[in-house]
């Protein structure tokens, strides 16, 4: 049984993006699927998505989390908390932390971490060996989150044995449905939730979670006693709002696992795409040079760059990192646009399907940042539901602005310093799905040439 489950997971989840596209082409924009006894409705029609995720949010306010995940330390976080248990209060408390003022205060820290990243790349680019830039970008993202979220001064970019780095990467690696028959089976047979909950503690994910939670708890206690009182970071801002310890730790944990791999994966995809399409890279570099001639690459100048914004949006349209997390539970029977949504059913909007739909985008298989430029204002104004890498409706990702700032600052400084290229004979990048994240299957090797 375990072998069969593993094979289904490997086949189904690796091919899931194309599989869903084909299903929607064959059966239409509303698609019903049973996982065991659990009924799921997958939508790709924008009007349906608007009605369910926005207009009727009160009847679809909760995200469906696999019941096995109720055993983890995320139940009080924005990722898993329910409306009934205080999601709205938590959201309203955390949202101001990502205001423009707070982002500007954090951008200096992010910029210094990116400078370290560029120094490392410069040294590597002088050698003859090729390396995986994805790993370097992952370490950068982890370094940024460690400092901006917890005021941790780790050396994870230079030291592969850095404790924070090892623990975080171990947990993220364990969140892979293909590596655990227990996690796989819990998705496929949700009616056996009592069994999967009992078995959760035996998973690598559960084991890897313990040292991270203990570490965050220790940091919390030190911060309560005044350590790092002058720092501007997520943990301090949550403590200042008098939130309960458990809620603080779980939301910090959620920020770590939600922001680390998603943003690093998106930045890796962007680096690869710019290397693959040199004319797009050149156009972006010209914009960067123009901005630098007028000043520096700071928070305001980065966010004033229209072509960088277009590259950012097109990267996330073309390769949305998260593809299995935008869902809502139907709380009571309701009919919307002639479709019955039964109580307990799960409604899903898949970014990859919506982003690659020919009814939503012209030539969706082509990487073309120009589609997001201001001169295409008609598209820009109507594209809010066509472009959903951060979710839809009131439960969209609260850390979206932080991720955008990290992405844009990293890519701008990277392209300002290096010309990126694809090594001769290097195979095309192939994304694979671990059940939640669409990430590169193989090492991403690029040529980096210092600009004069």
From TrEMBL:
The keyword Oxidoreductase is assigned to this record: yes
Annotated CDD domains: CYP3A-like
Swiss-Prot/TrEMBL cofactor(s): heme
Pfam families according to UniProt: p450 (PF00067)
Keywords: Heme, Iron, Metal-binding, Monooxygenase, Oxidoreductase
GO molecular function terms noted in the UniProt entry: heme binding; iron ion binding; monooxygenase activity; oxidoreductase activity, acting on paired donors, with incorporation or reduction of molecular oxygen
Positions bound to heme: 397
Domain of life: Eukaryota
UniProt similarity note: Belongs to the cytochrome P450 family.
Protein name: Cytochrome P450
Species name: Caenorhabditis briggsae
């Amino acid at each position: 049984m375990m072998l069969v489950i593993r094979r289904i997971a490997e086949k189904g989840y690796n091919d899931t993006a194309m599989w869903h596209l084909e299903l929607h082409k064959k059966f239409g924009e509303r698609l019903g699927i049973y996982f065991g006894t659990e009924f799921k409705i997958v939508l790709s029609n924008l009007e349906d998505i608007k009605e369910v995720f926005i207009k009727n949010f009160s009847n679809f306010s909760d995200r469906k989390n696999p019941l096995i995940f109720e055993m983890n330390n995320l139940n009080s976080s924005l990722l898993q908390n329910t409306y009934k248990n205080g999601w709205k209060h938590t959201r309203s408390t955390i949202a101001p932390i990502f205001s423009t003022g707070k982002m500007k205060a954090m951008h200096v820290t992010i910029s210094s971490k990116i400078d370290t990243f560029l120094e490392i790349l410069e040294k590597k680019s002088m050698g003859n060996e090729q390396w995986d830039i994805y790993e370097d970008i992952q370490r950068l993202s982890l370094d940024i989150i460690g400092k901006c979220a917890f005021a941790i001064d780790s050396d994870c970019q230079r030291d592969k044995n850095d404790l924070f780095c090892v623990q975080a990467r171990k947990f993220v690696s364990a969140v892979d449905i293909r590596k655990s028959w227990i996690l796989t089976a819990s998705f496929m047979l949700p009616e056996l939730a009592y069994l999967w909950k009992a078995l959760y503690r035996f998973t690598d994910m559960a084991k890897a979670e313990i040292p991270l939670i203990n570490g965050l708890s220790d940091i919390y206690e030190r911060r309560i006693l005044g350590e790092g009182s002058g720092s501007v970071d997520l943990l301090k801002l949550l403590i200042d709002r008098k939130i309960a310890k458990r809620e603080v730790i779980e939301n910090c944990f959620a920020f770590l696992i939600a922001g680390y791999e998603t943003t690093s994966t998106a930045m890796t995809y962007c680096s690869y795409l710019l290397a693959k399409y040199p004319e797009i890279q050149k156009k972006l570099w010209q914009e960067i040079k123009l901005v630098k001639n007028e000043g520096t690459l700071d928070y305001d100048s980065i966010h004033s760059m229209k072509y960088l914004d277009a590259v950012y949006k097109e990267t996330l349209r073309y390769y949305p990192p998260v593809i299995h997390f935008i869902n809502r539970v139907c709380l009571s029977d309701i009919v919307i646009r002639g479709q019955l949504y039964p109580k307990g059913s799960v409604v899903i909007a898949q970014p990859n399907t919506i982003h690659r739909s020919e009814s939503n985008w012209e030539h969706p298989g082509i990487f073309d940042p120009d589609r997001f430029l201001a001169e295409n204002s008609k598209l820009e104004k109507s594209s809010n539901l066509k472009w959903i890498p951060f979710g839809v409706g009131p439960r969209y990702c609260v850390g979206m602005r932080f991720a955008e700032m990290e992405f844009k600052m990293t890519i701008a400084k990277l392209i300002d310093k290096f010309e990126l290229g694809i090594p001769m004979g290097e195979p095309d990048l192939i994304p694979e799905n671990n059940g939640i994240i669409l990430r590169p299957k193989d090492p991403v090797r690029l040529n980096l040439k210092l600009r004069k």
